[in-house]
Amino acid sequence: MENFSPVSALIGGAMIGASAALLLVLNGRIAGISGILGGLINPARSEIGWRTAFLAGLFVAPLVYVASGGVLPLVAVKTPLWLLVIAGLIVGFGTRLGAGCTSGHGVCGIGRGSPRSLVATATFMATAILTVFVTRHVLGI
Questions:
Q1: pLDDT value at position 141?
Q2: CB within 8 Å of 114: residues ≥ 6 apart
Q3: How many degrees, rounded to 5, is the angle at CA 20 between CA 16 and CA 26?
Q4: 8 Å CB contact between 35 and 24
Q5: How far is CA 89 from CA 39, 41, 82, 96, in A?
Q6: How far, in Å, CA of 101 to CA of 122, rounded?
Q7: Is the dihedral of CA 111, 114, 119, 120 positive or negative?
Q8: Percent residues over pLDDT 90 in the chain
Q9: Is residue 109 within 8 Å of residue 121, measured between CB atoms?
Q10: Prediction pTM value
Q11: Of all residues in the chain, what percent are helix, strand and coil, respectively (each to 5)?
């Protein structure tokens, strides 16, 4: 891990937690990205505004950060595109199967004390650890 800063990580985590708590308290909604995005497929009229604003914030926030003098880290992906596509499809399938994503279960569900979210998050983490081990140390990708 290069350039790890515990202070910025703590501030970022607190901001994510606060935004998830505010969405739940003020809107009665879980800040799970897959659920928010999925809810735009066939939304009720009253759902479109907050869902669009939430997703737009994911794209606008880095732009505001850069405009205010921040520097985004350079990300180099050495994995072949075909493997990224397959991995994305598997993640999407797992998200559907697990009735939520890491943000919904990991940030919001565990914060609410949901046993289902605790199991889901433990499963996400174990699968991620196993995947990294197999791809890097067994397959050498």
A1: 75
A2: 105
A3: 140
A4: no
A5: 19, 18, 11, 11
A6: 12
A7: negative
A8: 24
A9: yes
A10: 0.73
A11: 70, 0, 30
